[in-house]
């Protein structure tokens, strides 16, 4: 039987874009767990946010927080040695991203030079993040615990969006777009982290990788997997910015599409 590994985005993919519920995907999650298929969360969410979902779903596999900023691998998960940056709270961490303080400083400088207002999670209270994102206050607090990625909004219309994103590129850093926010990141993305983690899984023997996402920040991850799937947005459309040869379309919105896709592959 094929050894699968699932790489999945969370917001708008495994969990509903509005309600943050994974209810619709539970049958497929149960099936994957029964078959011992690793489920790797690859998301713009922070480690603190991801840990809540890992606990609720009893998933103990490695994960990739903050748009590929790092790979967190439970200490005894792989029974071979590999290079990592540091050990934290029972994880071996492979750091790929740029320090949060540097990302914040760059955004401040770009805001001054362009005259465009940039509001990052670091500028917002948990209450404000909650208003913008529909997260509850507790979750918003966890979303503020950022290490490798700053989520932000740009005020001042399309003109400012272009100006700010251009300046980020000129600074040598990168950006990506999630379901709700822009993200400034270092020289990393979900794809680089996914590729490295696939390499580790492959050391145990051949694997077939499945990827699921909904937005532009998932594109690099989807390009790295054997079976890439794009789920529908809440309005029933597919993100037009995510397109390449071989990309498959899941037949459903977010977690519903996730559930259908996994059941079809494993069924
Ligand atoms: Mg998403």
Helix-strand layout with pairing:
Elements: E1 4-8, H1 26-34, E2 39-42, H2 47-57, E3 63-64, E4 70-74, E5 86-88, E6 91-95, H3 100-114, E7 118-120, H4 126-133, H5 137-143, E8 150-154, H6 157-170, E9 174-177, E10 182-185, H7 190-202, E11 208-213, H8 219-224, E12 227-232, E13 248-253, H9 254-266
Parallel strand pairs: 1-2, 1-11, 2-3, 11-12, 12-13
Antiparallel strand pairs: 4-6, 5-6, 7-8, 8-10, 9-10
Helix pairs in contact: 1-9, 3-6, 4-5
This protein binds magnesium ion.
Structure description:
It is an enzyme of class 3 (hydrolase). InterPro entries: HAD-like_sf (IPR036412), HAD-SF-IIB-MPGP (IPR006381), HAD-SF_hydro_IIB (IPR006379), HAD_sf (IPR023214), MPG_Pase_thermophiles (IPR033980). Its EC number is 3.1.3.70. GO terms for molecular function: magnesium ion binding; mannosyl-3-phosphoglycerate phosphatase activity. The protein has 267 residues and is of the alpha/beta class. The protein folds into two domains: 4-97 and 189-266, Rossmann fold (3-Layer(aba) Sandwich); 100-185, 2-Layer Sandwich (Threonyl-tRNA Synthetase, Chain A, domain 2), CATH 3.30.980. The protein is built from nine helices and 13 strands. α3 (100-114) crosses α6 and α4 (126-133) packs across α5 (137-143). The two termini are 12 Å apart. The mean pLDDT is 96. Magnesium ion binds next to loops. Residues 9, 11-13, 178-179, 214-215 line the site of magnesium ion.
């Amino acid at each position: 039987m094929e050894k699968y590994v699932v790489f999945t985005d969370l917001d708008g993919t495994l969990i509903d874009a509005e309600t943050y519920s994974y209810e619709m995907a539970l049958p497929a999650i149960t099936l994957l767990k029964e078959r011992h298929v690793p489920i790797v969360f690859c998301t713009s969410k922070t480690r603190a946010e991801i840990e809540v979902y890992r606990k609720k779903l009893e998933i103990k596999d490695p994960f990739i927080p903050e748009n590929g900023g790092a790979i967190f691998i439970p200490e005894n998960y792989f029974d071979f040695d590999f290079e990592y940056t540091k050990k934290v709270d029972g994880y071996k961490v492979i750091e790929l991203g740029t320090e949060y303080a540097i990302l914040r400083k760059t955004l401040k400088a770009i805001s001054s030079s362009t005259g465009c207002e940039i509001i990052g999670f670091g500028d917002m209270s948990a209450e404000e993040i909650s208003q913008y994102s529909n997260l509850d206050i507790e979750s918003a607090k966890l979303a503020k615990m950022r290490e490798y990625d700053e989520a932000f909004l740009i005020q001042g219309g399309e003109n400012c969006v272009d100006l700010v994103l251009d300046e980020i590129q000129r600074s040598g850093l990168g950006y990506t777009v999630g379901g709700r926010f822009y993200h400034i990141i270092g020289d990393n993305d979900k794809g680089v982290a996914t590729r490295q983690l696939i390499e580790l899984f492959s050391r145990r023997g051949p694997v077939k990788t499945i990827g699921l996402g909904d937005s532009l920040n998932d594109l690099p991850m989807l390009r790295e997997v054997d079976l890439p799937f794009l789920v529908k947005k809440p309005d029933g459309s597919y993100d037009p910015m995510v397109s390449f040869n071989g990309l498959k379309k899941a037949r459903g919105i977010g977690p519903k599409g996730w559930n259908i896709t996994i059941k079809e592959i494993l069924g």
